[in-house]
């Protein structure tokens, strides 16, 4: 039997509207390197990753190839494919491009292009967990009290002990996540993460305890936070 391999799908095909920058947020500099390049470098340098499928807006593919993939020499990037309207569509385009390159039991890590502070240890742990169930979800316990709100009024306060904030990577065996994405597409279901597509089919998704520093760079203050976390890592000798 051939050993299971591991591929990463990196959706980086959003518009970055909430960042309000003049260029797509993933090309903004974070400690001297474009955000998406910083994310890719974690996967490029992780021995557990065999290949990377990058998804960007169609009209950014040549720019991304030249200024990110070639400029930083990311040799594990096997292809760059165009994204879709929603994140889910972009991920599905990446999974479709992996078809034929991977086996049913190979593991796929799906990771936001704008979460550059992911650690190699969490990649490794997610892969190990994904081999034992239908999916591995990196998440952190909610720190705030979360309210359910309708029309400006609170309608519920869910028990915080049960609430976790989903991050990425989310890891799955290829056959499992491809089938879940295909079903969601056929049934017109859109989820805000990949694990939810497995959950709705009754699949078992196990939590991998994540890191509060693994932020998704969404608004301008996130750049300041990420710079501070990186500076902290450098002081600790982690980078
Ligand atoms: N149609 C989309 C939308 C999002 N993403 C990717 O999904 C990740 C998480 O999305 P988010 O941070 O919300 O990015 P944007 O959609 O770009 O942000 P905004 O909603 O502010 O435009 C990002 O790496 C983003 O590029 C994607 O590949 N395709
Ligand atoms: C997948 C995700 O990063 C988990 O927190 C998040 O759901 C993506 O949300 P977005 O608004 O589609 O970026």
TrEMBL record:
It catalyses: 2-C-methyl-D-erythritol 4-phosphate + CTP + H(+) = 4-CDP-2-C-methyl-D-erythritol + diphosphate. Keywords: Isoprene biosynthesis, Nucleotidyltransferase, Transferase. Pfam families: IspD. It is an enzyme of class 2 (transferase). The record marks 18, 25 as: Transition state stabilizer. Catalyzes the formation of 4-diphosphocytidyl-2-C-methyl-D-erythritol from CTP and 2-C-methyl-D-erythritol 4-phosphate (MEP). This is 2-C-methyl-D-erythritol 4-phosphate cytidylyltransferase. It comes from Oryzomonas japonica. The gene is ispD.
